[in-house]
Amino acid sequence: MESLEGKSYCASAFLDVSQAFDRVWHEGLLFKLKNALVDHFYGILKSFHQQRHFIVQQGEALSDLCPTKAGVPQGSVLGPILYLLFTADLPTSESLITGTFADDTAILATLSDPKMASQILQKGLNDISHWLKKWRIKANEIKSVNVKFNLRRGSCPPPPVTLNNIVVPQADHVRYLGLYLDKSLTGQKHILTKRKQLGIQTLAGKLYWLIGRKSQLSLENKILLYKEILKPIWTCGIQLWGTGSHSNIEILQRFQNKALRMITNAPWYVPNELLHHDLCLPIVKQEIIRHTRTYKERIERHPNTLARPLMANHNKARRLKRKIPQDLIQTQTQ
């Protein structure tokens, strides 16, 4: 958002790591653990990976017992931690913003010149490509995405970027950590995608026999199904897409109106406001404010001091008429 405010250009690459947890090279992991941990911790983690074997079954036939030389145990508490330790030395640069969460990696370069931004991004990808080969990690170049975040229209497209000498596909949006980010950061792509998932032809349609007008379930159970299955889908990432325009937010509000009418079998003359009040369900805008306030309180109490500025008040003058999460709370307070 800061790059859009400053009329800058943000070139980004979102990398897809193939079978990330299954391809952690044991020898490389132990080498890094030995340098990072004291001897007794290293010895415990070393024994954790020793004497592990696997068998392949095809029909009734079984393969021989083979030693496991890569991968961290799936479903274990240590699995994600060991993967983070293995990838902690991912190449970074002062001219790049690198964001990682488990195997989701985003690289961003922000400049006023699109070509220079792409060149800096390419240099960062070259360093990462060398690092991936060194530590035997495989990135899927075709499933990775190159997005150019900007508000410029009619400008010449910047040169593409490559990973392992393969062109990374360009797109107008990307799915990252469960959120769909469009190149203008309006949140519309995310909202439309969630609305499609909740459509009568998809999830809501499959639940119609349980929550529909002819269902014999009690009203309390219908509302419980809505809260536990349908509502979490559209509230995901609400602190971010909730800053979108009124027209985008109304897309999800109309869905909730239809869902409550279907659940209660309410006639046409019953107002939507009355349905929300009687069912004790807040409207979408109220949900946005509630989730944002809760998120702010959690950030302020977070033990990591680096996380606390995420919801700090920003009084800087802004060029764009865009909201940020802090605006939602301040508006409600006023």
Automatic annotation (TrEMBL):
Pfam families associated with the record: RVT_1
Domain of life: Eukaryota
Domain Reverse transcriptase: 1-181
Protein name: (apollo) hypothetical protein
Species of origin: Parnassius apollo
